[in-house]
Amino acid sequence: MKSIDELSAFYVDAFAEGKGDLVKQSELIGNTLYQSVQKGLLVWLAAIIIAALVFSSSTWILFFILISAAVIGWLLNDQYKQAKQAFNERCYAEIFPKLVKFVDGNLHYASARVVSQHIFTDAKFIPLPFNTYSGQDYLSGEYDGVHFEASTIVVQHQNESSNPVIKCLAQDKALFDGVLIRAEFEQANDSQVVILPKCKPDFDPEYLDSKCYARLERYHTKFAEFERSFVVLASDPMLAKTLLSERFMLRVLSLQQKFGNNVYITVEKGHITVAVNGLHIFDRSRNIYFENFYADDVMSWYGDLMRVFTIFYDLGLTSRAS
């Protein structure tokens, strides 16, 4: 972890020059939206005058005024959201690559890239069918001796009905929205061990009978606390027994304490795949529009990144893990 002084110095060195351009762009967007609001008010005033000339009924005049106000308000709000999102994306593109390099020069960052879908599918974290897989904020490289790749991913089952009424009424089902990590792991071989959270509200024991788990067997540990929290499926009970030492299970439980019942782990073919629902490489919901960005924003994003890397230490993957 970097110190506050190091992070502050990084912020000054990395953004003192580029921040001025973003401030100017923010002011330009703000002026444009201000002018749009003025134009919207003029259009609304014109609509009121037209309504008074066209309609004789006060009820229709009031109705027309309210409808025109709603339409103009919706258009202005939509323009505001688009401008805000565009500015936020510009800031993200400026900040995130520099922040990743600040954390470790061996890391590579690609904003629009995502960990391959087959890695998520092969890990067998979710037995439910999905038809949408997307993501962003891809990281790869070597961190504290561990070769890995990671990204934020979103997995959904979208309604594909051709009926517009059904498509409108049926909501898309979000199955996973969080971080997916794949890293080297010495204890892994060609067998597969899958560790799933048991205490989720939507967990159904019947999921374990899904086709994707057909070649796996339920493995029971002798650790009562771990059994209450997780389900273990394994293609080879001997690998599961070797992997699930009390020390390793305590590490997994520490992740559960930190991230709740959102931790999924699969071990196979020389790698460990970890998924944490609700955790993101970078929190892109921060509203930096008009505020630009300041040291506390950068510090928050640094914290996002380091929460991801704490998983490496908690699972004992790095050379410095206790």
TrEMBL record:
Keywords recorded for this protein, A-Z: Membrane, Transmembrane, Transmembrane helix
Transmembrane regions: 43-76
Highest taxon of source: Bacteria
Name of this chain's protein: DUF3137 domain-containing protein
Species whose genome carries this gene: Zooshikella harenae
